[in-house]
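Title: Comparing notes on inverse folding

I've been comparing how different people in this forum approach sequence design from structure. To keep things fair, I'm posting one structure and asking everyone to reply with a full sequence. Here's the target:
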């Protein structure tokens, strides 16, 4: 079984990174080939992950609920196999929209028709839409494709956009640099895991047992786990402008990994809520049902 994660989105795969570092996959008897890659700047994430799955570069990944529904509809050899829901301090609860310190945009309503940096085909795109609909009309939400969170931060600092969707740990860096959080997410939908159908139930069960054990560890992290997370953050910061590099060490010294809710079965009620937003944006897959998208043995994965 293979798992490959995007270095620029390391925070999304940190439970797997921890599980690999402390040997939890081996303890479960799972021969997991672990690797990483650097996402190409101009390649859409739907293409990236479906290509990885088809080529055998990875057998499982996770992403925002809406993105996973679309991706699985485009790749009939994959299925949704699990959900990790938002909670207090969880990664999928840390989305925020930031503006520059000198911005005259002081209220969320003032973002109407202003350029907001996002990454298409990912949770940031759909989360911004969901959050901004609380304040402005749908046709007043102006999203600009920029890329990964660190790139969105740089785009905002350079004045290329008026606002940017950021997530932990880039929100911490933005706070340290004096940027202003204008909208904090109201996201209530889960992150989903998607696997190739060729992966058997025994492997999936072992994978999620190991990762859920890792989640227990990182929800109360020791010094080694905290240092590992900070080092991954600092490695990306080396590619950023000097003002970001200057602020990064102070952020890293007090940085802790975000929490996660354990992986559990995805439900049909959650699917119906997600489809409502996709239909509103006219991007819902045609004639795709919960039964089609979700692994037929999803409940069996989480049985002891």
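Reply #1:
Here's my take.
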């Amino acid at each position: 079984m293979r798992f490959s994660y995007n270095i620029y989105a390391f925070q999304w795969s940190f439970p797997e990174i921890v599980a690999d570092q402390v040997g939890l996959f081996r303890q479960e008897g799972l021969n997991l080939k672990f690797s990483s890659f650097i996402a190409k700047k101009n390649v859409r994430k739907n293409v990236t992950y479906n290509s990885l799955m088809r080529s055998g570069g990875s057998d499982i990944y996770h992403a925002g609920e809406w993105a996973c529904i679309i991706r699985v509809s485009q790749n009939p050899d994959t299925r949704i196999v699990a959900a990790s829901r938002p909670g207090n301090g969880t990664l999928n609860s840390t989305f925020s929209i930031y503006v520059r310190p000198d911005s005259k945009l002081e209220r969320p309503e003032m973002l109407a028709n202003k350029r907001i940096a996002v990454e298409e085909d990912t949770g940031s795109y759909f989360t911004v839409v969901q959050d901004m609909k609380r304040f402005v009309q749908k046709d007043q939400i102006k999203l600009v494709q920029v890329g990964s969170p660190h790139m969105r931060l740089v785009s905002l600092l350079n004045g290329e956009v008026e606002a940017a969707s950021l997530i932990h740990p880039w929100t911490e860096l933005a706070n340290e640099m004096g940027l202003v959080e204008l909208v904090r997410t109201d996201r209530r939908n889960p992150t989903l895991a998607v696997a190739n159908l060729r992966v058997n139930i025994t492997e999936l069960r072992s994978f999620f047992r190991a990762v859920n054990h890792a989640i227990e560890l990182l929800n109360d992290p020791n010094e080694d786990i905290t240092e590992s997370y900070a080092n991954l953050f600092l490695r990306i910061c080396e590619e950023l402008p000097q003002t970001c590099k200057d602020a990064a060490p102070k952020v890293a010294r007090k940085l802790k990994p975000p929490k996660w809710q354990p992986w559990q079965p995805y439900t049909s009620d959650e699917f119906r809520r997600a489809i409502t937003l996709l239909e509103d944006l006219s991007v819902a897959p045609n004639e795709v049902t919960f039964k089609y998208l979700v692994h037929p043995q999803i409940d069996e994965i989480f049985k002891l």
